[in-house]
Amino acid sequence: MPFESLIEAPTTDPSVRLRRLNGELRQASSQTILRAAIVREWPGELTYVSSFGAESAVMLALIADVDPSLDVVFIDTGMHFPQTLDYRDELIDRLGLTGVRTIRPDETERRAEDPKSMLWKTDTDACCALRKVRPLEPALKGYSAWITGRKRFHGGARMNLPVFEFADGRYKVNPLAGWTQDDVDLFMAQRNLPRHPLVAQGYPSIGCWPCTQPADDPDNPRAGRWAGLDKTECGLHIERNDRPRVF
Ligand code: SF4
């Protein structure tokens, strides 16, 4: 029986809808979760926010299987490794993605708040707010839901990640929540997907160059992100009311 016929019509109450979605799809495959989100739940109202980092090819390939024209947002912070920008272009080409849109920080704000591009040295929260969090807010307007590539094995606040969430007026879909590093590696090999070039240089998680370094802790694949700081998330996945004041 197709999944479209398994449930009642979507409700507008987020808590009821979340309960239904997590109840129905918590144990489902990533492919089933994605199809449900793209085709049934939020057709035309869903986007994927991708870092084009170490694991992004997995989600992008799964999305391409369902709809290669799905809207995908890439935040060009101005601080990415050049390899990341090349990798973005390579994956777009390889997977036939036609909906990728690159957004950037507001240039007037960047000149005012970080004219020398050194803000990361003194205030990473303010830098992430300027270069990631604030640019994404207008880019998500018009979408009822967005897909993320977060996984529980990343640790920290992600350890209890549900498949569906609701935050700041929008649903989040986490089809890979239950994936492990082995799942990622196996899928990449089976699909012959190109790896981000920095993975071979010891980077298991890749963000902006000033805040990313190689790491070899299998229990903490994000150990190389903001190493030495108390920071583990850029802020995109911190609810508005819980963010530091600069956000
Ligand atoms: Fe700035 Fe680092 Fe955040 Fe990138 S990850 S926006 S460089 S603080």
Question: What features would you describe in this structure?
Answer:
This protein has 247 residues and is an alpha/beta fold. It has a single domain (3-242), classed as Rossmann fold (3-Layer(aba) Sandwich), CATH 3.40.50. Helix content is 35%, strand content 10%. It contains eight helices and six strands. The protein has helices at residues 14-25, 30-41, 56-66, 82-95, 107-113, 119-122, 124-139, 181-190, and strands at residues 46-50, 71-75, 100-103, 145-147, 164-167, 170-173. A six-stranded mixed sheet has the order 3-2-1-4-6-5, with helices on both faces. A hairpin with a 2-residue loop joins β5 and β6. The longest helix has 16 residues, at 124-139. It is globular, with a radius of gyration of 18 Å. It starts with 13 loop residues before the first helix and ends in a 57-residue tail after the last helix. The model is unreliable at 4-9 (pLDDT under 50). The structure holds iron/sulfur cluster.
Brief descriptors of the model:
247 residues, 35% helix, alpha/beta, 6-stranded mixed β-sheet, 10% strand, binds iron/sulfur cluster, 8 helices, Rossmann fold
CATH level 1 class label: Alpha Beta
Distance between the termini: 46 Å
Tally of extended strands? 6
CATH superfamily: HUPs
Bound molecules: iron/sulfur cluster
What order do the SSEs take from the amino end to the carboxyl end, as H and E? HHEHEHEHHHEEEH
Strand order of the largest sheet: 3-2-1-4-6-5
Give a quick summary of the entry.
The protein is of the alpha/beta class and 247 residues long.
Secondary structure topology:
Layout: H1 14-25, H2 30-41, E1 46-50, H3 56-66, E2 71-75, H4 82-95, E3 100-103, H5 107-113, H6 119-122, H7 124-139, E4 145-147, E5 164-167, E6 170-173, H8 181-190
Parallel strand pairs: 1-2, 1-4, 2-3, 4-6
Antiparallel strand pairs: 5-6
Bound molecules: iron/sulfur cluster.
Iron/sulfur cluster (SF4) is lined by residues 77, 79, 120, 124, 127-128, 131-132, 207-208, 210-211, 234.
